[in-house]
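note to self: dont lose this again. the chain is below, predicted strucutre after it. 127 aa total, dont forget to put it in the shared folder this time
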Amino acid sequence: VQLQASGGGLVQAGGSLRLSCAASGCTFSTNYMGWFRQAPGKEREFVAAIGIGWSAGSTAYANSVKGRFTISRDNAKNTAYLQMNSLKPEDTAVYYCAAAQGLIFSDSDRESRYNYWGQGTLVTVSS
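---
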């Protein structure tokens, strides 16, 4: 399984970016997808997750991004997205997408539950 994250860049505070995570080598529709981020000098943290199948509409968000970020998926394109609006300087980080199989959705914020990881894409928000 390979995950390719893209869409990062430099944006001013208040701006928007959309990250993409293209998956290959797997049956994408059977994988829960998550986004995590790691800011300089900090540990990696959960950002958002989205379910599969009957729970494909299920989403989860970190409190710090709730109401500003939206996770979605397009199974036909084997791609997950993270729409980030009203960006703040504290959102600056490397963003990673991850895929999980057999996940209990209540555990979607746990790094250890994810089987596959992308390489990360840098988001820099200037003040």
